[in-house]
């Protein structure tokens, strides 16, 4: 029975990858943190159910090592068991009514809890106690698999033993009224009228009393020595399991360990059982000291008429109040530790530790919302920072390097104590962007978005800077490729390294696609081409390929009615050129020969800038695999649009090769009644669309 089932999976290649699999990827962690989180009510139910189950199971199972005298536990133990069983019954039923929980699991847990409470004190209670312990182990580890799950099972066993033993020690009967010790004069045992309780007390001769011998208040089996080792072993097991879980599952940085709710809860799960063990051990030591030093006063003499008629009694030494209080505190502290372990499933998981040279994908909470943050290349010097959300484009040229804002910005990022850099939008791309200088070694980035701020730990190492195109105008496309690489990563595989960007060189597949496109334009009778390029290595090579494939047409730098527009630049220049052409087309015929975009320009920020365009592609954006990629990247980085560079990086992890020959695809808006641009048919935004409010479909056979 799973009392809480937060979304802890990310789509990758059409399959769900659990966060808690052996080595969760950065994408899985980010998607889990950005997914829907459980509310306070659901978390409270989980805590009540698990702590109550552990307490009832523990009270039932300690009867195996310390059965109650005559099978009759003290009133305090019975009350504690019934209260815990009631909490379990109510919480289980509420979870069943409000969540997706099987009826059989609910009935089993409720019946086992009530049966255990009714049988506490007898060895028969061990059967429902074992059932409850199994349910507790499964519920505590319900969001993990493999070794992390086994560690949660160990924690559940240890916590139940600690709670059961400590609660039994705390609820043990005091000897002030339960048990008394009888003192006899030296001549022998004085027979006198005795109450039923005194008749059951041991007879102690004067010589024994004078020597200071300690007398137990009740049989050692219940509340006596056997329970102390049980509590200590259980607490140490829980502490060891929580510590191992901390090392296996994280947090992986000291920043997250002490600065995030997940880290603090993990520390509590480690430390509190250990504190409970200390409390129980001190309580046991206090009791032993009290017993050893408690001497019973001798009877006054034979002439004392009251002594001759009745025995003299002293308070029993079974459980002195300070010891009981320490045991009670230990039980409470152990329960809080289990509660901390229980809420881990509902907290945003910690992000990965920064590794120099690898893209860092993290989530932060700022301004009342959870944001995704990408930092690359994570080397000393300029680094690109990409943040999810909506941001404004500055009035001046979009900053692409070390530009510090001169006017207040609604979002900024700063490296250490350096001046903040504004986070702004970029043409053709989604989200916010900034370039910041990071010093060598470890440090932090501080993001200020809206009214909140958050920090991200970074580690750039000491290698020389190697940012290149990543911090230039083509940075967003390079970041898209990194996100696609992260989205396609599988657990246990090496994390992607930041290497060359797509704009650093023209691939052979793209060259073939442009060559076939240029020949097709000539075959259609177009004799004039307006070629838009930039100074990136890929664009320069692409322009040369177009010129080589169509040497007989004339090339123009200005828009005109009869030319074909061919764009082989990066995203930002392409968006500017398409915006200009679309504006001119409203006033006069422009580029009637068609608009052709390079394959790497398939991204919503570019293709939506014109009424229609044609792209030579080696994959179908409407196929299931392409949509899976778009959904995966949107899950790990909200608002991130799909792009050719990202898809190709993702497809390499899937083992999906590009088509051997390119096909021309037409991208155009589609007017669907009762919907708005960029919306599903249900009227909600589609975060995983290649053309929001439109479509991308093949318009030719594969090109030669």
Explained architecture:
The chain crosses the membrane at residues 40-65, 77-95, 101-120, 127-147, 153-172, 227-248, 260-284, 326-347. Residues 302-322 are annotated as: Disordered. The chain has 704 residues and is of the alpha+beta class. It has 21 helices and 20 strands. It has a 4-stranded antiparallel β-sheet with strand order 6-7-8-11, with helices on one face. Strands 10-9-12-13 form a 4-stranded antiparallel β-sheet, with no helix packed on it. A 4-stranded parallel β-sheet has the order 15-14-16-17. Helix 2 (40-61) packs antiparallel against helix 5 (126-140), helix 15 packs across helix 20 and helix 16 (508-523) packs parallel to helix 17. The radius of gyration is 36 Å and the shape is elongated. The model is unreliable at 1-22, 173-224, 295-320, 395-408 and 674-685 (pLDDT under 50).
């Amino acid at each position: 029975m799973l009392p809480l089932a937060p979304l802890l999976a990310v789509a990758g290649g059409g399959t769900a990858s659990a966060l808690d699999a052996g080595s969760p990827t950065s994408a899985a962690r980010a998607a889990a943190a950005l997914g829907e989180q459980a509310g306070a009510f659901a978390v409270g139910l989980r805590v009540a159910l698990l702590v109550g189950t552990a307490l009832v199971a523990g009270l039932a199972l300690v009867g195996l090592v310390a059965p109650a005298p005559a099978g009759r536990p003290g009133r305090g133990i019975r009350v504690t068991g019934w209260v815990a069983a009631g909490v379990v019954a109510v919480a289980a039923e509420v979870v069943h009514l409000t969540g997706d929980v099987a009826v059989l699991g609910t009935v089993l847990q409720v019946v086992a809890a009530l049966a255990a409470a009714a049988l506490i004190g007898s060895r028969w209670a061990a059967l429902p106690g074992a059932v409850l312990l199994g349910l507790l182990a499964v519920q505590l580890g319900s969001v993990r698999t493999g070794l992390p799950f086994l560690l949660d099972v160990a924690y559940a066993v240890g916590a139940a033993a600690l709670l059961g033993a400590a609660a039994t020690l705390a609820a043990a009967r005091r000897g002030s009224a339960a048990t008394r010790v009888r003192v006899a004069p030296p001549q022998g045992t004085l027979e006198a009228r005795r109450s039923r309780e005194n008749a059951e007390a041991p007879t102690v001769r004067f010589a024994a009393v004078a020597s200071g011998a300690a007398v137990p208040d009740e049989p050692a089996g219940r509340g006596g020595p056997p329970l102390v080792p049980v509590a200590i072993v259980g607490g140490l097991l829980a502490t060891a399991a929580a510590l191992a879980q901390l090392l296996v599952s994280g947090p992986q940085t000291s920043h997250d360990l002490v600065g995030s709710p997940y880290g603090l809860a993990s520390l509590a799960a480690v430390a509190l059982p250990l504190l409970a063990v200390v409390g129980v051990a001190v309580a046991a030591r206090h009791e032993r000291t009290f017993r050893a030093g408690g001497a019973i006063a001798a009877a006054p003499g034979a002439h004392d008429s009251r002594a001759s008629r009745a025995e003299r009694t002293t308070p029993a030494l079974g459980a002195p109040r300070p010891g009981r209080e320490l045991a009670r505190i230990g039980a409470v502290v152990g329960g809080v530790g289990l509660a901390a372990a229980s809420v881990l499933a509902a907290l945003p998981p910690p992000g990965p530790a920064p590794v120099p040279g690898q893209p860092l994908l993290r989530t932060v909470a700022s301004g009342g919302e959870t944001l995704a943050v990408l930092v690359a290349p994570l080397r000393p010097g300029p680094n690109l920072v990409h943040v999810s959300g909506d941001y404004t484009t500055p009035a001046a040229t979009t900053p692409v390097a070390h530009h510090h804002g001169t006017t207040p910005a609604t979002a900024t990022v700063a490296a250490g104590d350096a001046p903040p850099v504004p986070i702004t939008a970029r043409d053709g791309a989604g989200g916010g962007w900034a370039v910041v200088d990071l010093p060598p070694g470890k440090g932090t980035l501080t993001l200020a978005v809206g009214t909140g701020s958050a920090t991200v730990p970074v580690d750039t190492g000491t290698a020389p800077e190697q940012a290149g195109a990543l911090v230039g105008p083509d940075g967003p496309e390079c970041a898209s490729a990194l996100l696609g690489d992260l989205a396609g990563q599988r657990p246990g595989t090496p994390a992607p390294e930041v290497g060359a960007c797509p704009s650093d060189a023209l691939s052979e597949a793209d060259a073939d696609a442009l060559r076939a496109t240029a020949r097709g334009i000539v075959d259609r009778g177009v004799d004039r081409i307006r070629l838009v390029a930039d100074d990136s290595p890929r664009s320069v090579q692409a322009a040369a390929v177009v010129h080589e494939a169509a040497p007989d047409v004339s090339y123009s730098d200005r828009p005109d009615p009869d030319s074909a527009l061919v764009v082989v630049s990066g995203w930002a220049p392409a968006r500017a050129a398409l915006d200009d052409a679309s504006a001119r087309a409203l006033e006069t015929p422009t580029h009637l020969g068609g608009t052709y975009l390079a394959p790497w320009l398939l991204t919503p920020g570019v293709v939506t800038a014109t009424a229609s365009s044609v792209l030579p592609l080696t994959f179908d954006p409407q196929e299931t695999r392409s949509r899976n990629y778009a959904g995966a990247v949107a899950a790990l980085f909200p608002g991130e649009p799909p792009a050719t560079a990202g898809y190709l990086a993702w497809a390499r992890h899937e083992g999906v090769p590009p088509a051997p020959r390119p096909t021309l695809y037409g991208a155009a808006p589609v007017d669907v009644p009762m919907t708005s641009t960029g919306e599903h048919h249900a009227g909600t935004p589609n975060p995983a669309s290649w053309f929001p409010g439109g479509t991308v479909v093949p318009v030719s056979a594969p090109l030669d």
